[in-house]
Amino acid sequence: MYNSLLKKITRLRAHAIYVQSKGRNMFYKINTYGCQMNVHESEKIAGILENMGYSDCPENGNPDVIVFNTCCIRDTAERRALGNIGVTKAEKKRNPNLILAVVGCMPQQDGVAESLKERYPYVDIVLGTRNIAELKDEIEKVLSSRARIKKRSDKKYRCFDTEQPQNYLEIDEKTPQTRTSYPNAWINIIYGCNNFCTYCIVPYVRGREVSRDMDSVLDEVKKCVDEGYKEITLLGQNVNSYGNDVDDPNVNFANLLREIDKIEGKFRVRFMTSHPKDLNDDIIDAMAHSSKICNNLHLPIQAGSDKVLANMNRRYDSEKYLQTIEKLRKAMPNIGITTDIMVGFPTETEEDFQKTLEIVEKVHYSNAFTFIYSPRKGTPAAKMEQIPYSVKQERISRLIKLQNKITKEISDTYVGGVFEVLCEDIAPKYEGMVCGRTESGRLVTFEGTSDDIGKFFNVKISQSKSASLFGHKEG
Ligand code: SAH
Ligand code: SF4
Ligand code: F3S
Question: Is residue 199 lining ligand 1, measured as CB closer than 6 Å?
Answer without folding.
Answer: yes
